[in-house]
Request: fold
Amino acid sequence: METITLNNGIKMPVLGYGVYMVDPSVTERCVLDAISVGYRSLDTAQYYENEAMVASAVRKSGIPRDEFFITSKLCLSRPTYEQAKENVKGSLRRMKMDYLDLMLIHWPMGNDSGIWRAFEDLVKEGYLRSIGVSNFYPKTYADLVKNASVIPAVNQIETHVFYQQRPMIQLMAEQGTAVESWGPLAEGMNGIFSHPVLTEVGAAHGKTAAQVALRFLIQQGIIVIPKSVHKERMIQNMDVFDFSLTENEMAAVRTLDTGHNLEGWPADALKYNPNEW
Reply:
């Protein structure tokens, strides 16, 4: 598995398994399937209500904890510093784990600076290895980092072939924050699985449209966490490291960018504004 070296020197797999909208009743089975085909990076969140099931699958796999990279996300509106610390420890208790590899602020919640100070201290105390944000765009990102001692290791944002986020990717690169794509397959929207451009590019490599869409992001150094409850699709999503897109193929996929998000978060009004930096 290829990795990205985060700004704290820790290596994170460039491809992981996400469990957003995976029903808690099937999460453990799905994660065990993902682990069995080679996934070692697992992405959950308090909001998903399946942290415990992800952790249970890790234990049942029999694979040592230190071979996994496990991410969760804090979801608590306007918490105090103390509440944020206790909230993270609550995730660890639910998961019966001593530490998380990455903890994110799920979205701007108010008092983000207080949450961030709590995260920084939890790193010092050994509860977290890396810390980052999700759904932070120029203004909220700038407000967070101006008083931060630790620059976010990751910013998880909607990123896919139809919303390529090139200005944000450039901005995060300048700041030393890795971009992680949620919804790398556009949640199945815009006919992504049969899109003629992706299908044509894929045919040249014996790959599917979905595999081309994932490869397009990975080839730019973007971390991806596709979700599927079907083992055969988990295998297909993993099978993206034995080919590369040519410059012409990358250019063809770039033409699919609409410049607009599909999920409605954040509003397009929050897109990159160079005057804010």
